[in-house]
């Protein structure tokens, strides 16, 4: 996508929505990694299994957001990379940073939990 391209209000709204989903996935991912140390070793498998639905959800949001911000091919690549442990978290952070930059460039305030939806008309 061209850095100077202006997105429609609909595209901005969907970008903000997908970014919120990614932010929730990042928070859940970090929480589960931290919880792994709180559980005894024999219960860590269950925490590890909880990462699977979060990874799948993150993959969907990354694909949707990457197709808005980049191209379909890059969206597929980033979505696949999201499924790789540790690399997935890096992909989430990169795509979140790109979405934040695009939203801010369009005058939308972005905080810890994503874009302020009231800024999008």
Would you write up a description of this structure?
The protein has about 120 residues and is mainly α. It has one domain (about 10-115). The protein is about 70% helix and about 5% strand. Strands 1-2 form a two-stranded antiparallel ribbon. Helix 1 packs antiparallel against helix 2 (about 45-70) and helix 2 packs antiparallel against helix 3 (about 70-80).
Task: Give a quick precis of the structure.
By secondary structure, the chain is mainly alpha-helical.
Element layout with pairings:
Blueprint (H helix, E strand, L loop, with lengths): L8 H30 L5 H26 L2 H11 L4 H19 L4 E2 L2 E2 L6
Antiparallel strand pairs: 1-2
Averaged pLDDT: 89
What is the element string, with H for helices and E for strands?
Answer: HHHHEE
Task: Give the overall shape, derived from the CA principal axes.
Answer: elongated
Q: Kindly report the spatial arrangement of strands forming the biggest sheet.
A: 1-2
Strand proportion, as a percent range, falls in under 5%
Number of helices: 4
Rg on CA atoms, Å: 15 Å
How does the major sheet shape up? Answer: 2 strands, antiparallel
Q: Quickly count the domains.
A: 1
Instruction: Catalogue the unreliable spans.
Output: none
Q: Give me the secondary-structure category.
A: mainly alpha
Q: Count all strands and give the number.
A: 2
| Fraction in helix | over 70%
**Amino-to-carboxy terminus distance:** 22 Å
């Amino acid at each position: 996508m061209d850095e100077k391209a202006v997105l429609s209000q609909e595209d901005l709204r969907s970008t903000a929505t997908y970014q919120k989903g990614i932010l929730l996935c990042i928070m859940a991912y970090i929480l589960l990694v931290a919880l792994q140390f709180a559980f005894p070793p024999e219960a860590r498998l269950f925490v590890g299994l909880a990462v699977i639905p979060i990874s799948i959800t993150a993959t969907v949001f990354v694909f949707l957001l990457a197709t808005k911000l980049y191209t379909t091919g890059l969206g597929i690549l980033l979505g696949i990379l999201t499924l790789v442990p540790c690399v997935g978290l890096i992909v989430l952070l990169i795509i979140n940073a790109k979405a934040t930059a695009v939203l801010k460039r369009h005058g939308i305030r972005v905080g810890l939990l994503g874009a302020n939806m009231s800024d999008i008309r």
